[in-house]
């Protein structure tokens, strides 16, 4: 898998930004008694998703990126739970919550994590695989000898 240069190049980040916008819009319609409770919690959780993706992309290693993508996926599950509670408490409707966007983003994040893990395993396997005779001959030719060992007195 090619190196991810910028979070802004990722569809998953753009979808997370859209979901955060939707959450901000629906929290404006929550009752005033939720101003200090559910509303800021929904917003913080929604903000955490694209923020974690962006931070992971800014890190130096694939391992760190994967950790932050896992955090984003965890925050997405947290947001889904909070939205479900909002529906069960008759604060929001199912349509308002954007569960379809949540599911799409979950699939995108899980797919990206899976692809990065697969690429990491393949790179590790390639790096750890034993050299074949052809590989040794090519390596020897690059070093300037024919691959034959000579004994010097």
Task: Please render the helix and strand layout as text.
Elements: H1 11-27, H2 38-58, H3 62-88, H4 94-97, H5 99-128, H6 133-143
Helix pairs in contact: 1-2, 1-5, 2-3, 3-5
Description:
The protein contains 6 helices and no strands. By secondary structure, the protein is mostly helical. Helix 1 (11-27) runs antiparallel to helix 5 (99-128) and helix 2 packs antiparallel against helix 3 (62-88). Mean pLDDT is 86; it is low at 147-153.
Would you summarize the structure shown here?
With 153 residues, the chain is mainly alpha-helical. It has helices spanning 11-27, 38-58, 62-88, 94-97, 99-128, 133-143.
Features:
single chain, 153 residues, mainly alpha, 6 helices, disordered C terminus
**Average pLDDT figure:** 86
| Total of helices | 6
Q: Quaternary arrangement of the chains shown?
A: single chain
Largest sheet: none
Low-confidence stretches: 147-153
Please report the total strand number as a whole number.
0
Helix content: over 70%
N-to-C CA distance? 49 Å
Strand-and-helix sequence, N→C?
HHHHHH
Question: Could you say which structural class the secondary elements and strand pairing correspond to?
Answer: mainly alpha
C-alpha Rg (nearest Å) = 24 Å
Shape: elongated
Beta-strand proportion: under 5%
């Amino acid at each position: 898998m090619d190196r991810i240069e910028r979070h802004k190049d990722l569809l998953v980040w753009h979808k997370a930004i859209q979901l955060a916008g939707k959450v901000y819009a629906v929290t404006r319609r929550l009752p005033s008694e939720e101003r200090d409770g559910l509303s800021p919690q929904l917003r913080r959780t929604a903000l955490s998703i694209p923020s974690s993706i962006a931070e992971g992309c800014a890190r130096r290693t694939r391992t760190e990126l994967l950790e932050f993508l896992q955090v984003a996926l965890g925050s997405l599950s947290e947001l889904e739970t909070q939205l479900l509670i909002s529906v069960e408490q008759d604060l929001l409707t199912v349509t308002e919550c954007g569960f379809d966007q949540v599911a799409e983003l979950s699939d995108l994040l899980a797919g990206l994590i899976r692809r990065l893990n697969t690429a990491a395993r393949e790179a590790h396997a390639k790096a750890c695989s034993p050299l074949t005779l052809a590989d040794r001959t090519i390596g020897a030719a690059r070093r300037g000898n024919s691959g034959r060992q000579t004994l010097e007195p």
